[in-house]
Amino acid sequence: MLLVDTGVFVSAADRSEHRHHECSALLRERQDLYVAAPVVPETAWMLESRLGSIAEEQFVSLITSGRIEVIDLISVDYRRVLALIRRYANLRLGFVDSSIMAVAERLQATTIATLNRRDFAVVQPDHIESFELVP
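and the corresponding structure tokens:
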């Protein structure tokens, strides 16, 4: 199971991003892709605002293709999001990143595809010592 963060989708879509090739290869080659539901609107908004409606359409097409499973948050996830935001207030962790971590904990996922090393490397998950971060 590989949970994917917004930055990976944006970098894969934007050929000018310095991690474009790594991110697009990751999304193309992995078959076990999952995304926490809050990542979807954040990514769509970022793609549309930075690259235009065609990039947003391609992303939504990817989400609806069945290649990526969207994981909805449940009440336990929202409570964990709140706890993470409070505990890591100095990081300004935010709702979306916290939701990825909450879903990872609930589903016992150990690997997250993210370019955001600052947050994901600092936060101590409940189920493992630290997340494995790719690419």
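(Above: one complete record from the training split.) The first helix runs from residue 6 to 13.
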